[in-house]
Design a protein that fits this description.
It is a single chain. The chain has 148 residues and is mainly alpha-helical. The chain has helices at 25-54, 71-94, 97-116, 122-141.
Length: 148
């Protein structure tokens, strides 16, 4: 009797036989790019937050919206998230082990915050959501061992 060459349904496949279990080059390069994007996203969040805190004239007032926060409150939310995202982006670029998991969690929160921010700056919120989705993908798919 011959052995089957493919695994039976319901069983896991063995690791790739190429000897390189570090994931795809796209994911590895994507992680580096995600670190830079986190830095940029964080700085832009800080700027967005400062603009919301400093004056209510920068963003248009939304009257009938489910998530009714004052623009100053939104400013503080974006400022705090932005500062933390800068530090996490720096951690990813340094290869810190904690930075990937924290990055996924915080970028998810940033994505939700920008979804709720849609009525104030719709185009920029959609751009930020797309960037956040890429960052989450890159941090989840890279299987390379982080540097210590």
């Amino acid at each position: 009797m011959s052995q089957p060459t493919s695994p039976t349904p319901g069983t896991s496949r063995p690791a790739a036989s190429s000897g390189n279990a570090s994931g795809s080059a796209w994911a590895g390069g994507g992680t580096l790019f995600a670190g830079f994007l986190l830095l940029v996203d964080g700085v832009l969040g800080v700027i967005k937050g400062i603009a919301g805190i400093a004056t209510n004239d920068v963003y248009a007032a939304v009257n009938d919206y489910v998530f009714k926060f004052d623009v100053t409150t939104w400013g503080w939310i974006h400022l705090i998230l932005g500062v933390v995202l800068v530090f996490v982006g720096w951690g990813i670029l340094k290869g810190a082990t904690w930075a990937r998991a924290v990055g996924i969690a915080l970028v998810s929160l940033n994505l939700i915050a920008n979804f709720m921010w849609l009525p104030y700056t719709p185009i920029w919120a959609v751009v930020t959501i797309a960037i956040d989705v890429f960052i989450i993908w890159a941090l989840c798919t890279d299987r390379s061992k982080p540097a210590f």
